[in-house]
Specification:
nine-stranded mixed sheet; six-stranded mixed sheet; 10 helices; 17 strands
């Protein structure tokens, strides 16, 4: 089967202010961003697609002169080391892109230059500046800078591998918006491109921007858009909205030749999940004695305390919950409410029902089963407590 490379043109034509693209690794996402959002706007006149909250159904084309620069964003300071950034651009044919004027990229003082490397002397001579590179963790250091030459901000690997030594920054979406504000300076013309692999849906951007429901139902190859209020009003008293576009990149149709627990994510772009325990018998062979809900980081899970119809064994069974939480349902959540039905600590609930406390006491690792591997992985990534063994 012929490999299907990612094409950024589809989401680009939505004219959104903020664009999220995610999917399998090595399908061409980063190459497209580098080619069409980093090099072309500087080297050539381009067309830009723009939407406005004043006429949300319309997308217009705007001609942009060459010479526009970009800002490349990574999460941590160690991510923007010179050697890593230069390696990031290794798949770009600089000679061809610049009509043989330059042959390499050089990074100096967090600025990115077209350059020429002389193989005989081993020296690199910097030429034209085409962009900037920034670590989001220190975005406050750039607050006083002027970046009016920047039209596109590209945030690479915005989805983090939770639980593997890499996590999100404190209030990370706010930090990204601070950086965006620094660059845009109220022009409303800067576009933000978030690029990532389909690692986990437990991601603060999805929750903060209210797009979790879109992500949960988005299929590979689909693009969905959403207008989000800024909470501000223009000079005519009209509420200002920004447009988000979300794309779950189409399966490339080619394998990455990897094996193991995460092979589907690497080969096909499926959401990354770890193996989880499943019910030893059919669900129909259990009676449900009690139900409650977990609601963390925007994810809802229905938890059922089951008893084996053929014996006395009991266990917990968790599955995703997509419907509204009913009144008088016991909920454990990171959301604080005054209702006695909304609790924070499953192992020390503020309730007087001793029978219910016994149910909760049995919420232990060796007695919990999950509807799917993805359900169990997302549950463990979203809760803010440690399940007892």
């Amino acid at each position: 089967m012929k490999m299907i490379y990612y094409n950024i043109d589809n989401i680009n034509k939505e004219g959104a202010n903020i664009n999220l693209m995610y999917g399998e690794r090595s399908n061409g996402k980063s190459y497209q961003v580098k080619d069409k959002k980093m090099f072309r706007p500087y080297l050539h006149d381009t067309k830009r697609y723009v939407s406005s909250y004043k006429n949300p159904k319309e997308v217009i084309e705007v001609d942009i002169k060459a010479g526009r620069r970009f800002m490349l964003v990574w999460r941590l300071v160690q991510d923007i080391r010179t050697e890593k950034i230069e390696q990031y651009f290794m798949d770009m044919d600089i000679v061809k892109l610049t009509n043989e004027k330059y042959n390499t990229i050089d990074v100096y003082r967090r600025q990115i230059f077209l350059a020429n490397y002389d193989i005989s002397t081993g020296k690199t001579i910097r030429g034209e500046k085409i962009g900037y590179v920034v670590a989001l963790s220190i975005e406050q250091n750039f607050a006083g800078g002027s970046y009016l030459d920047v039209d596109d901000i590209i945030f690479e690997e915005f989805m983090s591998r939770l639980g593997n030594g890499t996590t999100y920054l404190y209030q990370e979406p706010t930090k990204l918006m601070n950086l965006y504000s620094t660059v845009d300076r109220k022009r409303g013309t800067t576009k933000l491109w978030l690029v990532g692999n389909s690692i986990t849906r437990v991601c603060p951007y999805l929750k903060d921007w209210g797009i979790q429901d879109i992500i949960l139902h988005l299929k590979q190859g689909e693009i969905k858009t959403k207008w989000i209020s800024t909470g501000s009003f223009d000079e005519d008293g009209e509420e200002i909205f920004v447009k988000l576009a979300i794309e779950y990149c189409k399966d490339s149709g080619k394998t990455s030749y990897v094996i193991g627990d995460h092979a589907d994510m690497l080969n096909k772009g499926s959401w990354q999940s770890d193996p989880q325990p499943h019910l030893p018998k059919s669900y129909k062979k259990y009676d449900c004695l009690f139900r409650m809900v977990f609601y963390y980081k925007g994810f809802k899970f229905l938890a059922e305390f089951l008893k084996d119809k053929e014996g006395n064994d009991c266990c917990w069974f968790l599955k995703p919950k997509y419907t509204k939480i009913k009144d008088k349902t016991l909920v454990f959540s990171d959301i604080i409410k005054t209702s006695k039905y909304w609790q924070r600590d499953i192992y020390n609930p503020l309730i007087r029902n001793d029978k219910l406390k016994k149910f909760l006491y049995n919420f232990r690792e060796n007695q919990i089963f999950y509807a799917t591997d993805l359900c169990g992985t997302e549950f463990k990534n979203s809760i803010d407590f440690e399940v007892r063994k």
